[in-house]
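I would like you to sit down with the pair of lines that follows and say whether tokens and residues agree.
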Amino acid sequence: MKYLAICEDDLLFQFMRKLATRRGEVLFLVEEEGVARRIRRQGGSSQWGNLKNQSTYKKNHLEHISQAILFIRDAGLRERVYQHLRRLNAKLPILSLSSEQDATGNHKDPFLRQLPLEDMFHEFCAPQLLDTFNRQKVDRVRSLFREKDKIHILLQHDPDPDAIGSALALRELLGRNRATTPIVTFGGVTRPENLAMLRLLEIQIDRITYEDLHQDGARLALVDVQPPYFGVSLGKVDLVVDHHPKRIPFTARFTDLRPHYGATSTIFTEYLRAGGMEPSQRLATALLYGIKTDTLFLERGSQIADLEAFTFLYPFASRAMITRMERPELPREDLEALGRALSRLQLDDGVAVIHMGEVKREDVIPQMAEFCLQIEGVEWGVVSGLCGDKVVISVRNVGYVKSAGDIMKRLFDEIGSAGGHRAMAKAVIPLERFKERFGEVSEKVIREAMVPLITQREDGND
């Protein structure tokens, strides 16, 4: 999120810097150069200019601003600033802070919120700060589709709980059902806990082909994944909502990417709140489980938005059902594969490296990487395996300032699909291309490629 806070002095900065700034980037626009310098000296981002001139706001590229915040005590100036912003961007969400007797005009503006100063502390500590911004997003999402349209909600090849919960939320947000808006994938669901989720919540995911993607004029929405992931053209894409970093440029009618969020389910929870929708137990359970699994119960890659979404969903969700999802039956062959992998564990500078050899199911690889972090002295888990004609490498680490995604992209993006977050990442490389680059697939090759890069980052060169 990017906020533009327009104010006469640095009072708002002093209040916001430890609260609202956690939600995203805040640029403070003030009238005096000295005030701007004072804000910068204290770690803030600031500019100065004549607040009465429209040219001051043109320089700030309002099309890239998520929300403007007005804290101007002079009523006449505040109204003038509001008019400048509206002329430059008719749908920019604006939050105006003032006394109840001194509000910003008598505007019937759906993208203007007027907040009494007395409520400022509550507001900046609460998720309602984003409601106007998200309400705008919800309106746009709903406007993409006509009532007669069939919509395919496409997920990654082996959908995880975050993707499944997000897809369910999008369908609810659009007021659709399974027949008109099926959830589809080119692959299948394999992990036991994800299969348990589908069974317990009665969620159906259909397998689809590229040829059928737009059959009979069906529209296309992607959640928790982006078009380049699939490696082929998907045709016209109407919607992409995701929390992963944008790796390759793509085109869609509507895009909402928030890589600083821990889960896509958090974005859809904010959409539901902004739309005034109370989730059913089924939907709340799916979204809560999505946030919980992608952030390791808010311990990895999460931020305040994920915590607020989790808190909102918790009273509506079934904790007993989540417990049943998290403890599915483990097939004997998977248990044997994990045991064999542990016997080959190599530990080097806090990095556990395991090559599992041939595996029947790809999901045992990230399971093993997660398990490695429970071993004493391990800060990184690097686990690889052969799944058909692909080399799959999964990486996990215990910290927030590490660079798993960057390392995987640097090593493998040119020969396969690689990327992820700071604390978790994945690479999928065609077997032949891996051999062309590294000669063979082995624990030794992967350890020699990855451990030096990890050690270099750990030594402070991130």
About this structure: The first strand starts at residue 2 and ends at 7. The chain has three domains: 2-125, 139-326, 333-461. Residues 443-461 form the longest helix (19 residues).
